[in-house]
Design a protein that fits this description.
The chain is an alpha/beta fold and 256 residues long. Helices cover 29% and strands 21% of the residues. The protein has 7 helices and 12 strands. The longest helix is centred in the middle third of the chain and has 14 residues. Bound molecules: NADP nicotinamide-adenine-dinucleotide phosphate (NAP). NADP nicotinamide-adenine-dinucleotide phosphate binds next to strand 2, helix 2 and helix 3.
């Protein structure tokens, strides 16, 4: 009896957790797809394929040739291109798509957020006065801050920022969450940070810097998400499992 084939676009903790839950269910044949960006990826609970598909068209072709029954976009909320490709590939191939997206962080009293739509806008909204800026936006878009060499930067990322920023004062911290509140308070105080640039990723692993910023009254330039419209979306792994169960309930398996 054939199983339902599920392809998870991953690279996140949620994708890994979802894969682990589906791995134990013999109704499904689950594969996880990774971009191949991380130098030392963690071990995964299901078979993994690595590397791009060749745009939306390539992904649509892959869904057809691999006879995928459901595509789940569990990529990072700021992996915008692959999410657009997933939406387009689903439309082209007629294969259903589900997005698993953690809810965004909401600002609370005491937060000093400046909301922007892109990293480019964050660069433009930096103050005129030289400031010690904590860049917590990952490594891929950090280079854009080379346009503002008057500021001092502390850049934190999982993998190294290469090439480094073209500015006179930048230091780099390699670290992978989860981060705790006490450590974040110590970092912000110790480095005399005057401004944070963050992405509204949601989730708990990297939220402590937002709480620390609130406690210390440090402003945060918050880059908001740009997600493709019209894609069914769930906020948790549990909700994704429920959606999958519902989608395939009552449906006869292929080849039966
Ligand atoms: P992106 O800019 O949206 O995607 C760029 C290209 O990378 C895509 O067009 C696709 O190539 C390929 N790609 C991305 N994710 C893929 C996947 N899961 N499987 C196969 N190909 C994939 O993506 P990104 O921001 O570089 O992120 C890459 C990966 O890192 C994603 O898996 C994401 O979940 C993870 N990640 C991203 C961030 C972030 O802040 N952006 C943070 C943590 C983890 P083709 O067009 O050739 O198919």
């Amino acid at each position: 009896m054939d199983k339902h084939r599920i392809l998870i676009l991953g690279g996140t903790t949620e994708a890994r957790s979802l894969a682990a839950r589906l791995a134990g269910d013999d109704r499904f044949d689950t594969t996880l797809s990774l971009a191949g960006r991380t130098a030392d990826p963690r071990e995964q609970p299901v078979p993994v394929r690595i590397g791009g598909f060749g745009g939306a068209e390539g992904l649509a072709r892959h869904l057809e040739t691999e006879q995928v029954d459901l595509l789940i976009d569990a990529t990072h909320p700021f992996a915008a291109r692959i999410s657009r490709n997933a939406a387009e590939a689903s439309a082209r191939s007629g294969k259903p798509l589900l997005a698993l997206r953690r809810p965004t962080w909401e600002s609370k009293e005491g937060d000093l957020w400046i909301r922007v739509a892109s990293v480019a806008e964050a660069v433009r909204r930096l103050p005129e006065t030289p400031t010690r800026v904590f860049l917590a936006i990952g490594r891929q878009e950090a280079y854009q801050f080379s346009a503002r060499p008057e500021h001092a930067y502390l850049v934190r990322s999982v993998d190294p920022v290469t090439p480094p920023l073209d500015v006179p004062d930048a230091r780099y911290v390699l670290a992978c969450g989860p981060f705790g509140l006490d450590d974040e308070l110590e970092l912000l105080r110790g480095e005399e940070i005057g401004l944070i640039v963050a992405k509204n990723s949601g989730g708990s692993a990297t939220h402590a810097k937002i709480e620390a910023a609130r406690a210390l009254s440090i402003p945060v330039i918050m880059v908001e998400r740009q997600e493709p419209p019209g894609v069914p979306s769930v906020p948790t792994v549990e909700a994704a499992l429920a959606h999958v169960a519902h989608l395939f309930s009552g449906e006869r398996k292929r080849g039966v």
